[in-house]
Design brief:
With 152 residues, the protein is mostly beta strands. The chain is 14% helix and 41% strand.
Length: 152
């Protein structure tokens, strides 16, 4: 109609996050060591080390991380060997592979994605700490690598 602006469809999660990226490790780049950033990070190369990001982390399809990730929201299209701690949403897309443990408030795993590890869903970090503290005594009660069946 005349005089009315057309509304556009909302951008996908990846497109929305891409507009706010402060650090990029491009395709073919190799970074060895820990990285800390106050803004969003996009990794399309290889990171060997831990990543602590106050914003969002986006791992492209060719991206690889060998280390632990801590970020607000995490979108994984590439390969991660390490633990992921997301205070918000973790999205494991169809091309994503994650071998490690997850702590997140919200989790989306697409069909054909790969995940090998444990997942703890939390409402806040205080709850995450409580879960970890509860698990430690159980580990102390184990005998020869197996939990006692008497507790169950």
């Amino acid at each position: 109609m005349l005089g009315k602006s057309k509304s556009t469809a909302p951008a996908s999660t990846v497109e929305t996050q891409t507009a706010k990226i402060g650090t990029i490790i491009g395709p073919g780049a190799v970074f060895k060591g820990d990285i800390t950033a106050p803004e969003a990070i996009r990794i399309d190369g290889t990171l060997t080390g831990n990543c602590d990001c106050k914003g969002n982390l986006i791992l492209g399809t060719e991206g690889q991380i060998k280390g632990n990730i801590k970020a607000q929201n995490v979108i994984l299209s590439g390969k991660v060997v390490g633990d992921v701690d997301s205070s918000g949403k973790l999205e494991l897309l169809s091309t994503g592979k994650l071998s490690g443990n997850i702590t997140a408030r919200s989790l989306v795993i697409d069909e054909d994605a790969f995940f090998d590890g444990r997942c703890a869903m939390v409402t806040n970090h205080a709850a995450a700490l409580e879960i970890e503290e509860e698990e430690e005594p159980a580990a102390a009660d184990k005998t020869d690598g197996k939990a006692s069946a008497d507790k169950y």
